[in-house]
Amino acid sequence: MPGKVSLAEGLKVRFWGVRGSISCPGAEYARYGGNTSCLEVTAGGRRLIFDAGTGIRPLGVELARQASDIDIYFTHTHLDHISGLTFFAPLFDKRSSVRMWAGHLEAPYTLKKVVGHLMQAPLYPVSLDVFQARVEFKEFRSGDSLSCGAVGVRTAPLNHPNGATGYRIDHLGKSICYITDTEHREGQRDPTIVELCRGADVMIYDSSYTDEEYPRYRGWGHSTWQEGVRVADAAGVGTLVVFHHDPSHDDAFMDGVARDATALRPGNATSGLPRVLVAHEGLTLSP
């Protein structure tokens, strides 16, 4: 029988989905992965999940072997960040507790209403009443400071259509920032993001496009890996993680991004991690 999934005290992040916009099956995406956004952060004996794209399904399969106590934090509720939620096994386990958090929604929308609308005809065969876990829906305002046990969670608003929330997770002097989906303003760094990420060990950043591609997608609410480098440098971030890969960017393309980004941020941070990494499914970091 499989062993219990352990919860470490130290800060650790595992990437279960790294793709943006839509999942990408196929051999040409196999090395970096085709699932949409989902991160698992463990710290202080707690499990925090960020976004519920299709990557949350395999995470749920791993967690299904035991009762779980989970907090899910949404950057926002566009489909690529919530489309895996209804396939998350702990929601169907009466032993488990799941708290869902969102800070971007404006009245009359609430997180419970959004999930309820996702799970109704003609889009879905069953309603959220099928969840057997103890489920709570919690609202906050982007910019609030939260806590999850002994783990600090700071938030900030991001520049994205319909709103989005960036997160900073702090524990035992280590920090990870999760900044997606957001659109930069050319020629200037977003001061809200720079301040949230200042001195962070790791910054996971919306790198959907290259600077060369960006003009074609202005107004879509996404940024570039080069802007990620600029923000990381401005904020004194140790390790930049290129994330939210565009579905048109296959493994060969991402290899090129990794090469070019490493040329701009060579070497290792004080944590010992490289100063830049390109996210792939299964990547695990402990700053």
Topology record:
Elements: E1 12-17, E2 38-43, E3 46-50, H1 56-63, E4 69-73, E5 97-102, H2 111-118, E6 134-139, E7 145-148, E8 151-158, E9 164-171, E10 174-179, H3 191-197, E11 202-206, H4 225-235, E12 239-243, H5 251-264, E13 276-278, E14 284-285
Parallel strand pairs: 3-4, 4-5, 5-6, 10-11, 11-12, 12-13
Antiparallel strand pairs: 1-2, 1-14, 2-3, 7-8, 8-9, 9-10
Helix pairs in contact: 3-4
What would you note in describing this structure?
- It is a single chain.
- This protein has 287 residues and is an alpha/beta fold.
- The chain has a single domain, classed as Ribonuclease Z/Hydroxyacylglutathione hydrolase-like (Metallo-beta-lactamase, Chain A), CATH 3.60.15.
- Helix content is 17%, strand content 26%.
- It has five helices and 14 strands.
- Helix 3 crosses helix 4.
- The protein is globular, with a radius of gyration of 18 Å.
- The two termini are 31 Å apart.
- The relative contact order is 0.15.
- The model has no long low-confidence stretch (mean pLDDT 96).
What does this entry show, briefly?
This protein has 287 residues and is of the alpha/beta class.
Radius of gyration, in Å, reads: 18 Å
Sheet with the most strands: spatial strand order? 6-5-4-3-2-1-14
Class inferred from helices and paired strands: alpha/beta
The CATH superfamily label reads: Ribonuclease Z/Hydroxyacylglutathione hydrolase-like
The number of domains: 1
CATH architecture: 4-Layer Sandwich
Strand count, sense and closure of the main sheet? 7 strands, mixed
- What string, H for helix and E for strand, traces the elements in order? EEEHEEHEEEEEHEHEHEE
Query: Which percent range describes the beta-strand content?
Result: 25-35%
Backbone shape? globular
* Mean pLDDT over all positions: 96
Low-confidence stretches: none
The CATH first-level class comes to Alpha Beta
Q: What portion of residues is helical? A: 10-25%
Distance between the termini: 31 Å
**What's the count of strands?**
14
Give the count of helical stretches. 5
In the CATH hierarchy, the third-tier topology is known as Metallo-beta-lactamase, Chain A
